[in-house]
Fold this protein.
Amino acid sequence: MTEPDPAERLAQLEARINKLKSKDAPKAHQNEHYSQAQHAWRMVIELVAGLLIGFGIGYGLDSLFGTLPIFLVLFTLLGMAAGIKTMMRSAAELQRTNMAAEAGDKSPETGGDERAKNGD
């Protein structure tokens, strides 16, 4: 068997590289709109999840100990605080990503755990 011409192999390689680069092309404005809506829903879900987890823990402790709804109120408030903190962290992450994109940086800051960066 004969090997293909090196120039032909190089042309095929360049075609494959260009094909892969086209996958990373900037998204259309409509796709970005959906991305913003997804971020908004993510923040809402984080807040509601914190509330529901706090409510569940408080209700469970009140049932277990047979107390007034003191644990229910306490853990619901703690769940709300945790949900708000998580929501604010997501908003800060989104803001950093948007600022990096506006500055012309094609790859937003990635790497490492977000909690480790915030000291949690």
